Prior knowledge:
Elements: H1 11-39, H2 43-69, H3 80-95, H4 99-131, H5 134-166, H6 170-179
Helix pairs in contact: 1-2, 1-3, 1-4, 2-5, 3-4, 4-5
Bound molecules: zinc ion and fe (iii) ion (3 copies).
One fe (iii) ion (FE) is lined by residues 52, 56, 114, 117, 147, 150.
Amino acid sequence: xxxxxxxxxxxxxxxxxxxxxxxxxxxxxxxxxxxxxxxxxxxxxxxxxxxxxxxxxxxxxxxxxxxxxxxxxxxxxxxxxxxxxxxxxxxxxxxxxxxxxxxxxxxxxxxxxxxxxxxxxxxxxxxxxxxxxxxxxxxxxxxxxxxxxxxxxxxxxxxxxxxxxxxxxxxxxxxxxxxxxxxxxxxxxxxxxxx
Length: 195
Ligand code: ZN
Ligand code: FE
Ligand code: FE
Ligand code: FE
C-alpha cells in the first residue's frame, strides 16, 4: 500500500502517488470490465460497458502521457479502494440469479467505480493546477469527462429501462393495490408503488 509510509514528503509526491493510484485503478478496470460485459443481458448495457472499456484503455495511455510530462515513468501503486470495489462487484453479481436483476446490479457496481474515478480525477486536477502542472490538466480533464459521461449513460439506462425491468413485480403490485382501493384516486401519491 504505502499510503502511510513516509515517502510522501510534499504535495508533488502526493500528486505522483495519487496519479500512480489511479493508473493502477484504470489498469484493474481494464481487466475487470470484460467480465461485467459478459454478464450483462441488456444489449445497450453491454454496448455501453464495451464502449467504456475502449475509453478506459485510452485513459491508461493519457495517464502515461501525464507521467511523461512530469518527468516520471508510468508506475502503479496498489489501490485498495478499486480492488475492494471490483471484489464487491464480483461478489454481488455472483449472488444474483435473475438476469434482469443482474443488469441492475452490474450498473450499481459500475457506477461505484465511476464515482471513485470521478473523485480521484477531481482531486488530481485541483492539485495539478496548484502545483503548476498546467500541461497535464487537459489530459486529466479528458479522462474526467469520460467518467462523468459513463456515469450519466449508466444512470439513464438504469432509470429508463433496467431498473423497471428488474423490478418485474411492479405491475402486479400496482394491480393488487388497485383491487383494495375504495375509490379511484386512493394512494396514488404514496410512492410505494413507484419503487
Ligand atoms: Zn497507496
Ligand atoms: Fe477510467
Ligand atoms: Fe486509490
Ligand atoms: Fe470509468
